[in-house]
């Protein structure tokens, strides 16, 4: 049982050189910096403001946050106060730093490893029971991030803290060991029943819970499902059995707070093709959310009840190295050349939502989606929605998750290029999240 999250209640100027005038004026004022609300769910936007500055004063806003591994993430933005000595990130443009232009959630969306950290690092949150603690400061002048991060940097004019929660009050996290099934069930607050989904990630393996926690905070019960490299599950991606996923669906539907008789499935990357397989081979799965996946069963054979769906393989000779990261865009074989690996989704009695990053550099998600839709159209099916997001890479996460263009992948032991650009990617995450919530609520009955 989860305890409800706590909430934090948060001489004449013309005779002086310009920089000294600015410091003297700032020191004489009551400078304040704020994040409103001071505590919120992770998928909620905030308003960031600084007040009490000198008119037209140049300042640097500096945001920092640490993940589960204590990796330090930072972002900076350069602003010029208005005639009233105020900076409002909602309405004003950044003049430099981690982003430029009008980007209200830019400070959170562009968080990236500090100069002292390994640059190919993805923000990692294992502990979803406790919020991320964000530190926000305002400094005089337009400073580089290297300058802000040095001990010699002058003291901030003002600072504050902000909490971002993955779990809303009353959400429950329940560890799951049901038969062979391993994972965590997240239940919304209240009596229910709630629509239920199986939530899966990709080839990194293990158990990632942050999306399930946020789904439950929005009224959808989610089973965060591990399928390898966790607890007593297989250590590698050698093969799968559809029976494992059937058992996961069985667990969900046996729970008294899960809406019956159907559930949904959500998956990104390898989890995307698993979503298509669940919707095709498990009758109780009536809604599938595919996020930058493939239309074929990738890499590992999937054992069905009386047959085997082979795995689509890779051509590792087509890997390219771009700025120190592996570009794997060309390495997966074209499913049309290996039709035996294609998942026959036209046979599924389910609805599909395809969320596609048009700048995905990990997989050819646009092509895979097009092939899947072509198959559905040939069968006369109209049980799908497609949402394409320009400038968006592979890792479409819940809203305001920090953008990650490349990160170390423990399976291949190298950094992988994910693609995308920070501002369109962060905006796409918001739209994709709202689209997914609406689709699941509508299609799970």
Could you provide a short overview of the structure?
This protein has eight helices and 24 strands.
Helices and strands in order, then pairings?
Layout: H1 18-28, E1 32-36, E2 39-41, E3 47-51, E4 58-66, E5 72-80, E6 87-88, H2 106-109, E7 112-113, E8 132-140, H3 145-148, E9 158-165, E10 172-178, E11 181-187, E12 196-200, H4 210-217, E13 221-225, E14 239-241, H5 242-254, E15 263-268, H6 270-281, E16 285-291, E17 301-303, E18 308-309, E19 320-322, E20 325-327, E21 351-357, H7 365-378, E22 384-389, E23 406-409, E24 414-417, H8 422-443
Parallel strand pairs: 2-9, 12-13, 12-15, 14-17, 15-16, 16-21, 21-22
Antiparallel strand pairs: 1-3, 3-6, 4-5, 4-8, 5-7, 8-9, 10-11, 11-13, 17-18, 19-20, 23-24
Amino- and carboxy-terminal Cα gap: 27 Å
Rounded to an integer, what's the Rg over CA atoms? 24 Å
* Number of beta strands: 24
Largest sheet: spatial strand order: 10-11-13-12-15-16-21-22
Mean pLDDT, all residues = 92
Instruction: Enumerate how many helices there are, as a single number.
Output: 8
Most strands sheet: 8 strands, mixed
Tell me the structural class: alpha/beta
Taken as a percent bin, the fraction of beta residues is 25-35%
- Unreliable stretches (pLDDT < 50, length at least 5) are 1-28
What oligomerization state is this entry in?
single chain
What is the approximate shape? globular
Task: Determine the fraction of residues in helical runs and give it as a percent range.
Answer: 10-25%
